[in-house]
Amino acid sequence: MNGAESLVRTLVAGGVDVCFTNPGTSEMHFVAALDKVPGMRCVLGLFEGVVTGAADGYFRMKGTPASTLLHLGPGLANLHNAKKAHSGIVNIVGQHATYHIGYNAPLTSDIEGLARPMSSWVRTSPDAKSVAADGAAAIAAARSAPPQIATLILPADTAWNEADGIAETPVDTQRPSYSPQAVERAAKILHGDAAHTLLLVTGSALTEQGLALTERIAGKTGCTVMGQTYHPRMARGRGRFSINRIPYVIEQALPILKNFRHIVLVEANDPVAFFAYPNKPSMLKAEGCEVHRMTAWGENSVAALEALAGALHAAAHDVKPQQHQELAKPTGALNHASIAQAIACAIPENAIMVDESVTTGRGFFPPTAASAPHDWLQNMGGSIGFSTPVATGAAVACPDRKVICMVGDGSAMYTIQSLWTQAREGLNVVTIVFANRIYQILRGEFDGVGAGEPGKRAQDMLKIDRPTLDFVALARGMGVPGRAVTTADEFNKALAEAVAEPGPRLIEVQM
Amino acid sequence: MNGAESLVRTLVAGGVDVCFTNPGTSEMHFVAALDKVPGMRCVLGLFEGVVTGAADGYFRMKGTPASTLLHLGPGLANLHNAKKAHSGIVNIVGQHATYHIGYNAPLTSDIEGLARPMSSWVRTSPDAKSVAADGAAAIAAARSAPPQIATLILPADTAWNEADGIAETPVDTQRPSYSPQAVERAAKILHGDAAHTLLLVTGSALTEQGLALTERIAGKTGCTVMGQTYHPRMARGRGRFSINRIPYVIEQALPILKNFRHIVLVEANDPVAFFAYPNKPSMLKAEGCEVHRMTAWGENSVAALEALAGALHAAAHDVKPQQHQELAKPTGALNHASIAQAIACAIPENAIMVDESVTTGRGFFPPTAASAPHDWLQNMGGSIGFSTPVATGAAVACPDRKVICMVGDGSAMYTIQSLWTQAREGLNVVTIVFANRIYQILRGEFDGVGAGEPGKRAQDMLKIDRPTLDFVALARGMGVPGRAVTTADEFNKALAEAVAEPGPRLIEVQM
What we know:
2 copies of one chain form a homodimer. Chain A is of the alpha/beta class.
């Protein structure tokens, strides 16, 4: 077998059985190997950003890495987002043949240099016989705790020359753990001053079980439990403990945090503003507030929370039941509130919500706390164009779950090519586009950074009109049925149909 | 004025009066400054790859750099292409405020690390008072010989804090020159063995004037003049000296080059294969063939060719007139030959042809040699998705010239968002999409790299069908009128109308 085949077989044997691809010439042997090796599902994307984002969404839902197959074109924005989400991904990037690189042909570039800012692990295979072992090392790196972006660069001749066979991927014998001393410290703080203590959670603490443990701890001690502003994945909906998040807007975050004298971090970070603004703080906690890390990304936060609950004698009967507003289908005009209500009513059992709603969705959390149980995925890196690819990958990972992608019109246009892949693969993704014809987030940020009142030319750089985008036409062009809605009743109807039907659908919400 | 305004004013004063933008929060002060400072035209793109490619196309046609305004998301693929095209671009990329970077907020990334592989000049402004001078230095770098990609990173506070005023951009007092010794050497070779000498030209030699000089030299000495496979810009059509190019396919290139004992390089490189293939050579010249560089990128090749013609006493009367096939509108089915004929007939006076036709367009050069005079632009970096953005930038640079973009369906999908910017700005761009529903280049490459016969799954990674893309719907979704054609007669008609009408148009050629 050649190097390419040794790699594909190693991947499949190592449990990596999905490859999101956007291949070029230097990847043709890998593509050929896909035919020879059963067990690898290949999903084609029309742009690298679709591929890398899909691998992120796949990992968040599946918990094990997919691979990507890329040809120079970086798709780096979505790798940045994936890295911040602590997703594990095995990227395979073709390079010129080892003997050809020095001749500076047009497609020659510094791929390692490009990969390093976004990948925790980067390696170039030196020859065909090394490829399998390098692939196994990449898988192991992707699977580590916390997971990593692993980029393996394959010169074309390492793919076509003879290899020795496959390599075995080391199985992680080490289970993620936690520090008993850190748990003890947290217990002490909660014993001492729970009324002024914030338990700030993210990552693996946000499973249904992790949240239930925090609910007991809050019920027993009276502390506050909150999430960071953004999470890779959070269990939500009926039957799950519903927590608030630190608001994005600094003026809203500061009063919420100001009375805490202690923040106990469960994989989270010391609260920081998303951006700096003139005359506003970068760090959001009150002066004199102490920060204590109980677990870091990659540790076993559920086990730590169990130990903490045990230390506090917090049990199921300590839980204070939560009240949620009733679900009620809205009627009348489409606005942020009615949109939120309509979506909350429409979420089916076990849905996956991929949220790039930006400004439109700032009020989505309260009404959806009462929805059917679901998972909520957000952008961890801030680079927009994250959601349609992540929704694509999540749907590949969980074919029996409905994926609902909620995205602003500006954000949608970065990686709109995702829709074609959804049609190609028959994925159960409903894409809801909020068409307000403006990068509304930037309109707010313009004010927030103290830039004054935008004149005509500045407005032209913020508005997405002249012409208005027709997302139904765009979706149709890529094989996805779609419709536009202008009232709450139309939106309810479109949501119900899209959720009931298999395959991809798009709904343009004209605001 | 704040740092952002000092930069905008410096750019305009320094002759950079176009900015292709895809701004984010950290660029809001720059956007605000655009309102305050007359003279800067701002063009919005929906994706970074549109922005960076537009700046490439703008430079190629205008000869002076545009600026781009970016927010993290790299658009690196088209910067790679621009760098290989030796285009000068001033990229302005926002970064977190200087005091905020260390807090590792979500959008924090190593922008310098990302920029370096694609930029010859990278600088992060340390404070607001430095911004203007850094901007002037970036312009000077972009304008150097050869031109460079200059990336200036602006922490947000350098934009909002007070500056001192604008900075003057140094004017290049040094005119590009050439080496008289190198010209002498070339003259000697042509005196000695012109019949076995190839004059291999690109870059600034490809103006109408430069080509006319090579035509005299060829007529006088009997040497061969050829171009590299790809060029940033070549003057072509009636009245211009028509030269062949080294073919992309190695089996075609080798016999063409095998009888040359000398290759004189006029900005070109020692001929190298685009990719390595098993058992095929990387370098394409015959064994024993000597390579002599007369000029490098950035030197004054037209002056060198004038000196060379003088040394050889090659005059206008030495020119051997060329015969070209007559233009004839095709009829019947659409195939590579009839498509080429239809386009050749339709090219209007002084058009700009942006060529990402890949496999469909391999035969475009012979028939278009007889077309109305035009410029031909190709991809220098091999990263596809180059043409619709470059066409956009070229149209902004030359509003009185019709731009015709010829692009394969696979390539078109990388940066299809360009169409919206063309509609936004009312650009005179006709986009012709060759819809053969396959990455045909890869189908050939699959064979070329010796990967065997593609089975079903490999074919799935090469074909762009299930579903077929509807480019007319996609174009309509972005405000560009379009139509699909299935016969040569329909294509002729669609071309004539699209060329005659102002504003952007799309023609989907169903093959």
